[in-house]
UniProtKB/TrEMBL annotation:
The active site is at 55 (proton donor). Keywords: Hydrolase, Metal-binding, tRNA processing, Zinc. Binds 1 zinc ion per subunit. It comes from Exiguobacterium oxidotolerans. It comes from the Bacteria. The keyword Ligase does not apply. Belongs to the cytidine and deoxycytidylate deaminase family. ADAT2 subfamily. This is tRNA-specific adenosine deaminase.
């Protein structure tokens, strides 16, 4: 198994932890010198915090572990292309290499809508690798949102039935 696929597999494991608690299944792993130093998965709903993205939680953990805000020499693996907030944090923390699985057509800022981590106007530029286990990463998200839509639809139907019962 290729090295990138191994670490992305760990990030997928983190994403599944998010899914298990009802969060959007996005997971992240930060690696330095071939050692995992931090992991994270979405906690936005659980923590009721807009900033509780997998990447930010993992970056915070990595900074604590290394005792430094600079994460030079680190690689960040994430199942979904980072959003503008996470791409900014990646740049500001000096992460050397960003590796992601699925592209994010609605919020991706590592090549899709824009490419913040490689914009040479900033004081740090990261290497970028995309499409690692893309199908597996994308299927996690697709299945999650399909199930979420089905639950919402069923709830609306149930509410509609209850409203009919109340009026009869």
């Amino acid at each position: 198994m290729e090295r990138h696929e191994y670490y992305m597999g760990l990030a997928i494991g983190e994403a599944k932890k998010a899914e298990a608690i009802g969060e959007v299944p996005i997971g992240c792993v930060i690696v330095k010198d071939d050692q995992v130093i931090a992991t994270g998965y979405n906690h936005r709903e659980t923590n009721r915090q807009a900033t509780a993205h997998a990447e930010l939680l993992a970056i915070e953990q990595a900074c604590e572990k290394l005792g430094n805000w600079r994460l030079e020499g680190c690689e960040l693996y994430v199942t979904l292309e980072p959003c503008p907030m996470c791409a900014g944090a990646i740049m500001l923390s000096r992460i050397e290499h960003v590796i992601f699985g699925a592209v994010d057509p609605k919020g991706g800022c590592c090549g899709t809508l824009m490419n913040l981590v490689q914009d040479e106007r900033f004081n740090h530029v990261s290497r970028l690798t995309s499409g690692i286990l893309e199908k597996e990463c994308g299927e996690l998200l697709t299945a999650f949102f399909r199930e979420l839509r089905a639950k919402k639809k069923a709830k609306k139907r149930a509410m509609g039935c209850n409203n009919l019962d109340e009026t009869v």
